[in-house]
Specification:
By secondary structure, this protein is α+β, with helices and mostly antiparallel strands. Helices cover about 55% and strands about 10% of the residues. The protein is built from 23 helices and 13 strands. The protein has helices spanning about 15-20, 30-40, 50-55, 70-80, 135-140, 165-170, 180-185, 185-200, 205-210, 210-215, 225-235, 240-250, 250-255, 255-260, 265-285, 290-300, 300-310, 315-330, 340-350, 360-370, 375-385, 390-405, 405-429; strands at about 5-10, 10-15, 45-50, 65-70, 80-85, 90-95, 100-105, 115-120, 125-130, 150, 155-160, 170, 200-205. The longest helix is centred in the C-terminal third of the chain and has 23 residues, at about 405-429. The relative contact order is 0.06.
Amino acid sequence: MFWSRRKKKSGLQRIPAAEHGIIPSQICSKAKETLQRLNQAGYEAYLVGGAVRDLMLGKTPKDFDIATNAKPEEVKRLFSSCRLIGRRFRLAHIYFGRFFFLEVATFRGPHHTSSQGTTADDGRIIHDNVYGTIEEDAFRRDFTVNALFYDLESGDVLDYVDGAKDIHSGTLRLIGDPEQRYREDPVRMLRAIRFASKLGLEIHKDTKQPIRKMADLLDNIAPARLFDETLKLFHSGKAVKVLQQLCEYHLFSRLFPMTDEGLHDPIFNAFINTALENTDRRIQSGLSVTPAFLYAVMLWRAVKYHADNALAQGYPMMQAYHIAASIVLKEQVQYTAIPRRFTSMSREIWSLQSRFQYKDCRRAMNFLGHPRFRAAYDFYCLRASVGDGVTTEDCQWWTDFQEQDEDGKLAMCRQHKGKRRRRRRKRKS
């Protein structure tokens, strides 16, 4: 067991390379360059958080974050490509090219010990530019498995909170008093679900016990931040498990109240879960996913309800879907803000469902050229798979239609037209 022979000093446990298993070649070269440059300038600097956790779990990290005792302004003086961001807590982003950057954070101290730390009446930390030592920084982090520091110079992992032990036992544990930590930042409840689902960890009983009764604290979080967290949850590659746990801990209704109301409907429940299974497969295969499709799925039942109401009032089908989309999106953005580029695509996916009924050559051929055809088609076939007002035969027709050459498409349209005429004659007779 890799924590059995750690050296202790003032709570510090050093885990040597032979025990933690991290190989330097697994670390991003840009991160190593940044660590070396900070060290050479006389600063402490460590790889920290998710990168260390994932490497110890044998996974490939998505990000390589760095913690240091250098102040953000000092980091900026060392790196010409550095940009300082953040209000609640100042961070340094060091860019390598136009899009890739590393996040460098200064060690944080206890926010209540300085005038720079501000807490709201409900316990949330709203201003946090309080700097401290590496040990203080470790105890400010959320979960023990995220509070490990990798020292590039020695090759050791520094552990102040028994994070390595929890990694080995597969436990997700909050640092400190769970209720206080959730009050400081209610988003930690969502992070607990995400890490447990994504990493296959068991949430410690003390960490999970307060979640249900504190779920309403998420109502105080900015919708823009909850949008970001929602994407991390459902685009983690474990969306099915995420949904189950969000519902279990009464958190899902704080993100998607209209969707939560419809989960008792067997068809809609199957629709949601089938969509999330497909999303998980795409992510695990390295394929792209879009938030627009996720929101189109989550809000579909509410959109159908309002579209049916609009149709009953005499609106044409396409207009009915636009009216329904406006009503539903206006309600949803109160919980998770959605950028316009995604709401526009979700609107199109919904409204284009009505065009699949038209299989005459002119309209079918034009529809294939629509920029949102593929997303709308995937959505349509998803509906067919659970019997949501679409037959598998209709989905198969559009699948076959796409695969035909020009003559084949014309033949399919004529065949469909002939079937419609025969059905009309039977009805008249």
